[in-house]
């Protein structure tokens, strides 16, 4: 057996061992971060975690956004690819052997971390074991902040225009949303109702890419800190407001992200009285302070978005519709 084959066997074995401590975990569905990637705008990843410093939490690798690599291929298929690579490159040199063994330790570390975080978050996120390590790391930090918020009685409201805004101590380089976007629109008396009596809603599927061109989708936490769920930014259309402008406004109000519309997606009917018009968007500017900064931002790969939205059929439909246009 070649060194590369041994490497693959050891890695898969470590993945299975790490997963065995969890309930209902498929070892072939583990996500491991094998290298560090950054967002298209390097500073965006860090800005997603600015609020955590209010509680002096360890930000770890907050300047970078790690990406998950799904170790899910069948063993025979992987070994076949390894054999092809070895056949083309010739016998693996001793330096490569050493590099492989070093990487085994890295894989073991990632597998252990994934298993630990999956177990810790399982009670709040039943499909935690299916999420990438990048997403689990973000959720770990978010839950630490959520715990402190609840302990301190910090709970927003949608009655006051600034009822969902977090008090943030200014810091160098801080980006604050434009004044007109710092106060949320409250109440539904100003929302646009169609002549047939239906309520019009607009939503934004916001994406960004990392250095390798891999897409991430933006999710936001519920306005209720005791709900462990993440959503797509959406909201009502005001009287006299264009639907596309309403979508952009809702995105910046709820997530603190200024985005550009890429294209209009298929309208989704919720009921006879209500429908949602979603738009595919691309992230432009990420703000540190915005109108609903009590919410948490989560940038996730497509598969993680599907898992986290599994109890939101309309939002699932929106994300799946967007996927057709983002690869």
UniProtKB/TrEMBL annotation:
Pfam families: NUDIX, RXLR. GO terms for molecular function: hydrolase activity; metal ion binding. The RxLR-dEER motif acts to carry the protein into the host cell cytoplasm through binding to cell surface phosphatidylinositol-3-phosphate. Its main location: secreted. Belongs to the RxLR effector family. One of its GO terms (cellular component) is nucleus. Effector that suppresses plant defense responses during pathogen infection. This is RxLR effector protein. Residues 1-21 form the signal peptide.
């Amino acid at each position: 057996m070649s060194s590369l084959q041994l490497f693959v066997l050891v890695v898969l074995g470590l993945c299975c061992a790490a997963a065995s401590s969890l309930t209902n975990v498929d070892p072939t569905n583990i996500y491991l971060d094998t290298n560090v990637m950054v967002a298209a705008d390097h500073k965006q990843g860090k800005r997603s975690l600015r609020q955590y410093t209010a509680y002096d939490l360890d930000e770890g690798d907050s300047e970078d956004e790690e990406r998950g690599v799904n170790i899910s291929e069948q063993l025979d298929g992987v070994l076949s690819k390894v054999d092809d690579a070895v056949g083309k490159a010739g016998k693996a040199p001793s330096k490569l052997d050493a590099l492989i063994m070093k990487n085994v330790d890295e894989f073991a570390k990632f597998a252990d971390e994934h298993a630990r975080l999956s177990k810790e978050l399982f009670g709040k996120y039943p499909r935690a074991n299916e999420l990438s390590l990048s997403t689990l790391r973000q959720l770990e930090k978010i839950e630490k902040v959520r715990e402190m918020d609840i302990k301190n009685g910090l709970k927003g409201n949608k009655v006051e225009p600034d009822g969902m805004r977090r008090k943030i101590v200014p810091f160098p380089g801080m980006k604050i949303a434009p004044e007109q976007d710092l106060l949320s629109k409250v109440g539904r008396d100003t929302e646009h109702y169609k002549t047939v009596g239906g309520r019009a809603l607009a939503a934004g599927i916001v994406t960004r890419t990392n250095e390798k061109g891999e897409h991430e989708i933006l999710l936001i936490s519920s306005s209720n800190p005791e709900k462990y769920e993440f959503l797509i930014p959406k909201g009502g259309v005001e009287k006299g407001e264009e639907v596309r402008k309403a979508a952009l406004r809702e995105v910046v109000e709820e997530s603190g992200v200024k985005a550009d519309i890429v294209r209009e997606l298929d309208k989704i009917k919720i009921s006879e009285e209500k429908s949602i018009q979603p738009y595919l968007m691309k992230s432009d500017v990420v703000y540190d302070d915005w109108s609903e900064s009590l919410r948490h931002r989560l940038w996730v790969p497509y598969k993680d978005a599907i898992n986290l939205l599994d109890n939101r059929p309309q939002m699932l439909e929106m994300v799946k519709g967007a996927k057709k246009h983002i690869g």
